[in-house]
Amino acid sequence: MDYLRLMRLPNVFTAWADVTMGYLFVHHVLGPWHVFAWLAAASGCVYTAGMILNDVWDCERDRHERPERPLPAGRIAPAAARRWGWGLLAVGVVCGWMAGLTAGPLPWRSGTVVTLLAACVLLYDGGLKLLVLGPLGMGACRFLNVLLGMSTGPAWPAEPSLLGYGPPHLVAAGGIGVYIVGVTWFARREARTSRRLALTGACAVLLGGVALLGALPTVLPPALTGRFVPAHSWLLLLSVLGLVIARRCVLAILDPSPQRVRDAVRNCLWSLIVLDAAVALLVSPPGWSLLIVTYLLPTVVLGQWIEST
Known about the structure:
Blueprint: H1 2-6, H2 9-27, H3 33-57, H4 59-65, H5 78-102, H6 109-125, H7 134-150, H8 167-186, H9 196-213, H10 216-219, H11 231-254, H12 258-283, H13 286-293, H14 296-303
Helix pairs in contact: 2-3, 2-7, 2-12, 2-13, 2-14, 3-5, 3-6, 5-6, 6-7, 7-8, 8-9, 8-12, 9-11, 11-12, 12-13
């Protein structure tokens, strides 16, 4: 159980939701299954490695702020956690390269993206999180995680493009990335009373990420626009999701106590699964979106015993 707490196991399903959405964005179905499995394994391993190494590097600070965590409490040795974290990171990078080499028109792209993702994780854990640019680092990790899910799809046939990704891919991944920038900013002082002004700015940023996702219908190829769900209905759904997320954030702004802020952050993280499902609904048959929504079940159940933040 201590290792599962160290890995923040409930949050792994949010990483898988990103990859599943990205995969559906370019393939519209979860096939071939073995390729998707490589990508899911890569994302899960890199994510959990990042959680473990984060606590390894934060061990001394957690002795004062979070003494109940496995490492400062002495229930797991830092050396063992370090080996576990680096091992998972290496396995994740290998799985990402395998996904590209076994399928996809651009066999180098999956490996390149997962390597960049691993580098961003190490950069964030290694000290960027302490700087003002910390939330941007975490947002970059989520941005790359979505692009990892998209990495075995076809190259964008027109300009502009980046590593073969076109505007629709970058808007979808960017919306999730901006959303996580706001969530990370919101959580920066969750161990103590937060500042209302900072929470308000963070809330505006994460809702800006939701708004960026709302621009997707304007950049999708004509063949996909309105194919699975009318654009106006989808925008209404996204607006409702945004209001639900904003409500919990506003409650934390009014009462910026550590527990209220943590509740809001946990709600934002869990809502990420629903946002991914909403994006998938726009580009794939509804059944696949329902599959992503089912990721909420283990996330919520495990979250009763394992802290998400």
